[in-house]
Prior knowledge:
This protein is an all-alpha fold and 481 residues long.
Amino acid sequence: MTPGGPKTDARWLALIVLCAGMLMIVLDQTIVNVALPAIEEDLKFGQAGLAWVVNAYLIAYGGLLLLAGRLGDLIGHKKVFLIGLGVFTVASLLCGVSFSSEMLIVSRFVQGAGGALATSVTLGMVVTMFPEPNEQRRAIGIFSFVAAAGASIGLLLGGVLTDAMSWHWIFFVNIPIGVVAAVAAVRLVPSSEGLGLREGADVLGALLIVAAVMLGVYTIVKAEHYGFGSLQTLGLGAVALALLAGFVVRQRTAAKPLLPLRVFRSRNVTGANLVQISMVAGMFGLFFLGTLYMQLVLSYTPLQIGLAFMPVAGAIAVFSVSLSARLNSRFGERNMLIVGLVFMLVGMLVFTQVPVDGSYLTDILPAVAPLGIGLGLSFPALMSLAMSGAAHDEAGLASGLVNTTAQVGGALGLAVLATTSTTHTSGLLASGVGRLEALTSGFHLAFWISAALVAVALGLAVFVLRQVTVDREENQPVLVH
Length: 481
């Protein structure tokens, strides 16, 4: 068939289906935060228990991403995607009908597992479906819009559903989307044969990596409560690192390793994942604490907070969907990632100056606008670089690795920034500083740390990553040293 024929159209329809499934899962990660007060009141959660509505999801999701991505390479990406959609949709129904705190927490854990299965292979499927570099850039731009803008859209949708209906509907809304996406995926998304379980049936390795990442995420999310220097945090962190070290040793010696360590020989794959950890740590922490600043200092409602972040989604749409493919093709992914990180840094520095009596037009919009531009430029470039060194039969593994580093970075940034902000605010309150002034000062400190994390990501992008160009005769990517 010709490039413009039905086959090409079918691939782009399949991309829409994959992105719809991805959007449903990305939305869920922020839409729940808006509804937490309503959930706490209805199900009679204690303050410590309420955190597990978020933590149960994060631990399952973060812990299973890498394993799920590799499983896609072994048994087929489409199969894993469909299983993940099914598990996520059923778990969403169970979350929506939960009549006790225990039922909701268990359902959220299962939901996280389904989310990990579905999202871990999505980027790998996109790269495999669009091997031609320019088409791949366009496809990754669309995927990046969904991944990056979903968080801000989730804040708005969560506010609308919670205010207009009830918290149950933040979960029920997933059911029709999940069913339609699954039916469409069966018809439109191409199937691919996996390598077979025997090529990576490393049960011990699977147990080690799942335990290491789950325990690591648990340690990070609980560090906000116990402190980073506490015996519990240091002890659990040491055990998580020991499990990770055991996994690495196992992969070096296993006849059929779950995660072939050769994937890390690519400077761009390793470097891009390091950039992502630092960048996402700063970004997630800033969005979370920026939301709290608007809620606690400026007294914004959930709907107003969602609307406040909409310029971020709009800017990401313009740059990642419309412009990123052309800009990356002309100037290169590494260069556009650097430019995007500079824009993000500018937005975060503006956030460090927000006052107690801040105005949206003069204080918040000048911060969120460059953030949106930066995210729109950064994410497509970063995804391309992270997948650039992955072989065809390791696309799911590379995709799962990208999602894992994003999740770990987000959890780490949120824990560090929230703990730092809370500690600083508490100290000021104890010394007699007014509540709003103390809160704002605590947020300022956290925003400075966010900016520092993005600055680290910028340094890594400049000094570690290499530019990828396309050999026009062979139409293959070539590293420029």
